[in-house]
């Protein structure tokens, strides 16, 4: 259970990537009030010195009430397994990255933190570091929290602050995914009646709970080109998606479609829509990132805690150069604060 008065936590992510430095940049800019980072103290001090940031990095015990303030970053420590250099991946530090996540989950569940915000990690190096079943933050958090289903939702900054369906333009998007980190070859088999209905119910429930949308309206993509064109370009729409949406509408959910994805993602088709449900990762997120890359956040729906994240990866080629853009992390922090407060208020109302 989260406590909205408690600090927000930032896990600093892959130590060779830009996660540590975008955290430090926001701290140096005075944007991390009532926030605590989780990471290696020596790494953060070294990276701050490399970037020439005027910032005090101080250690505090996990669960303590000490929080960051302008020019001061408070850190709950986790120890690197081996020293980390900007841009140089090291599988030995895979366990360190997962440790930072576990510290954050434990703190949120114990009421010591209002929410967790994650900087990017590198899936490949975690797999190489001895965790062969790792597929990403979303699935790891599902298992760590002991829930059966979670949904990945990305939203642009403008859409994050809109509690109505009056979209203003192509930069306003909320996109959820039926499947997440799967090879494309496996997607069709994973798009099942049960999966669509579970994800849709969870998406509708958390649009109400976390975004304050009273009656969510969801537009659903087809899987195939032209949404299957009446079975001539694939049967998943006829056999799976349409029956699932019919059942959901009978339950009272406002789910529309399936629509061809190549035309759904245009402003006039999004009028009156609160979120788009895409069948697979790149179907939805390629469009969203074109519309608002660097100004969007990732939200995991269905967790007993609040988790948001950046909309980008580790950017190894930018690490240590002082040119990484911290805006998405700032958006993710603002969203985490907003959702934590809304969930706390809803609990009080109950």
UniProtKB/TrEMBL annotation:
UniProt pathway: Cofactor biosynthesis; pyridoxine 5'-phosphate biosynthesis; pyridoxine 5'-phosphate from D-erythrose 4-phosphate: step 4/5
Pfam families: PdxA
Subcellular location, record wording: Cytoplasm
InterPro entries per the UniProt record, alphabetical: PdxA (IPR037510), PdxA_fam (IPR005255)
Molecular function in Gene Ontology: 4-hydroxythreonine-4-phosphate dehydrogenase activity; cobalt ion binding; magnesium ion binding; NAD binding; zinc ion binding
Chain sites annotated for binding substrate: 137-138, 289, 298, 307
EC code(s) of this entry: 1.1.1.262
One cellular component (GO) term of this entry: cytoplasm
Coiled-coil region(s): none
Cofactor: Zn(2+); Mg(2+); Co(2+)
One GO BP: pyridoxine biosynthetic process
Keyword Endoplasmic reticulum: no
Cofactor note: Binds 1 divalent metal cation per subunit. Can use ions such as Zn(2+), Mg(2+) or Co(2+).
Catalytic reaction equation(s): 4-(phosphooxy)-L-threonine + NAD(+) = 3-amino-2-oxopropyl phosphate + CO2 + NADH
UniProt-annotated binding residues for a divalent metal cation: 181, 226, 281
Keyword tags: Cobalt, Cytoplasm, Magnesium, Metal-binding, NAD, NADP, Oxidoreductase, Pyridoxine biosynthesis, Zinc
Main localisation: cytoplasm
Similarity-based family: Belongs to the PdxA family.
Assembly notes: Homodimer.
Additional detail: The active site is located at the dimer interface.
Function: Catalyzes the NAD(P)-dependent oxidation of 4-(phosphooxy)-L-threonine (HTP) into 2-amino-3-oxo-4-(phosphooxy)butyric acid which spontaneously decarboxylates to form 3-amino-2-oxopropyl phosphate (AHAP).
Name of the protein in its database record: 4-hydroxythreonine-4-phosphate dehydrogenase
Provenance organism: Halomonas qinghailakensis
